[in-house]
Amino acid sequence: MTLTLTALYAGLAGLLYLFLSIHVIKQRLTVRQSLGDGGDETLNRRIRAHGNFNEYAPITLILIAALESQGASALPVHLAGVTLLVSRALHAYGMQGDGKEWGRKYGILSTFVLLLLLSLANIGLALS
């Protein structure tokens, strides 16, 4: 079985991760800080947005792959993939501060709901 849909969302997640990486690097160059954040709040926020993506995207992609490999229809796999990308993008947007914190809030909430639903769906499919 091929995991074509998961591959699509993994590729898109990879592009988002690359964007977040470049976002960190640009701020590092701006403030001339090669390690750590040097006390720069913008750099700290960008580092955490990048790190948070790295903390949540892999397990979510594994759960999406498991769902697809257990024969789930395309719709829930697509919904999970889109939700992953939107929730992580919202979180990164919200990490910018300046009145954008709502993005962080809804990004976290949607990520947690997605993780819960994917976990339960995979358990259910595995036990059936």
Q: Which descriptors would you attach to this protein?
A:
single chain, 128 residues, mainly alpha, 82% helix, elongated
In short:
By secondary structure, this protein is mainly α.
Describe this structure in words.
With 128 residues, the protein is mostly helical. It has four helices and no strands. The protein has helices at 4-31, 41-69, 74-94, 101-127. It is elongated, with a radius of gyration of 16 Å.
Biggest sheet details: none
Give the overall average pLDDT. Answer: 96
What gap, in angstroms, lies between the N and C termini? 19 Å
| Beta strands, count | 0
- Low-pLDDT stretches are none
Report the radius of gyration as a whole number of Å: 16 Å
What string, H for helix and E for strand, traces the elements in order?
HHHH
Percent in strands:
under 5%
Backbone shape: elongated
What structural class do the secondary elements suggest?
mainly alpha
Percent range of helical residues? over 70%
Q: What's the helix count?
A: 4
